[in-house]
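For the sake of transparency, this paper describes our internal protein records without simplification. An entry from our holdings is shown next, in its original layout:
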Amino acid sequence: MQLLTLLAVAAMATADHITGGYSPTKSRVSLDAKTDFFTAVGNDANYAPATNGVRICATKFVSVSQQVVAGINYKFRVKGCAVDRAANAVKDCVCPKDAPRQTYDISIYVQGWTDTYTVNSITNVTDAKADL
């Protein structure tokens, strides 16, 4: 009986996930995910060339999904503004008064046990919608 209960709990815990895929998008972003986000975006050395020098001060987390690989791939949707350097994208950052607030998708890879944090892409969702 205990074995059946354990199997049922395990099945329910994994039912929401697609093997190898991203978890369902969650509007509640965990403290661990936020910590990983700010550790990644707060250092210019963590940005992949594909980000083209874009840095975002995230003032609100909209959602996150994640994929467990040899680390974690995150897809964050945030509201915020473009800033001039990573040091201005840290936790509790403030957007300049004249900076437009927009929505961005930011993809980050984290491998905590090797202290690896990579910001892979930043997409301005507000601009992408305007292009449609």
Remarks:
- The radius of gyration is 17 Å.
